[in-house]
Design goal:
With 193 residues, the chain is of the alpha/beta class. It has one domain: Glutaredoxin, CATH 3.40.30. Helix content is 45%, strand content 18%. The chain is built from seven helices and five strands; from the N terminus they run ααββαβααββαα. Strands 1-2-3-5-4 form a five-stranded mixed sheet. The protein is globular and about 40 Å long. The structure holds zinc ion (ZN). The site of zinc ion has 4 residues, from helix 6 and helix 7. Zinc ion binds next to helix 6 and helix 7.
Length: 193
């Protein structure tokens, strides 16, 4: 019993000291907001926005909502399961380009795989606390000269949200990057945002 208790304590400790949480605690976010997004098929996505202000939070929630809605039909059309196998909470972090590319801070990003490529965003479900996943997103241009405009951000968010739904529906044995890019193109042909 003592062993079990110790194990439980160490699991709790690991969850609290997870890479993302401890790394993101080093960044001072001006604004944090929670929202539950309700999809037409009855699914829900709970999101915590960490970033600049209420306006940016609402824009991010809107992109997450639209890309989640379209993800259901896209997965179905392509013969993939669209029902959730796990329900994961999404932490969305708006960070400036310098922070996103800070290899000492963002130790959980697979830098070796990326080579010299710049990244605009990163989805991770491995080093997140249990039941949670994270999207790290390049900041809006008005807060970061190297950042993205609203249309660019909305587009990149759809790519990352496909990774979210691949994870949530346990569809991960195919080429997830190709599918996320296909989804990004699919949604820009179907949506006005
Ligand atoms: Zn990707």
């Amino acid at each position: 019993m003592i062993f079990k208790l110790l194990l439980a304590i160490s699991l709790i400790f690991n969850a609290q000291a997870s890479t993302h949480t401890s790394k993101m605690n080093q960044i001072n976010f001006n604004y944090v907001a929670n929202k539950t997004l309700f999809l037409e098929n009855g699914e829900q996505v709970t999101v915590t926005y960490h970033g600049y202000n209420a306006v940016e939070a609402q824009a991010a929630f809107k992109s997450i909502q639209i890309s989640s809605e379209y993800a259901q039909s896209f997965l179905k059309q392509n013969g993939f399961e669209s029902t959730s196998c796990v329900k994961t909470h999404l932490n969305f972090y708006d960070v400036d380009t310098q922070t996103l590319h800070n290899k000492k801070l963002m130790t959980f990003i697979e830098w070796a795989k990326l080579g010299d490529n710049m990244i605009y965003a990163y989805f991770d479900s491995v080093d997140s606390p249990p039941g949670k996943v994270s999207i790290f997103m390049t900041a809006p241009k008005k807060y970061d000269p190297q950042g993205l405009d609203a249309a660019g951000r909305a587009k990149i968010i759809t790519h990352e949200m496909m990774h979210y739904w691949q994870d949530r529906t346990c569809n991960k044995t195919h080429d997830v990057e190709i599918q996320a890019d296909q989804y990004m193109n699919f949604i820009s042909n179907h949506s006005t945002f």
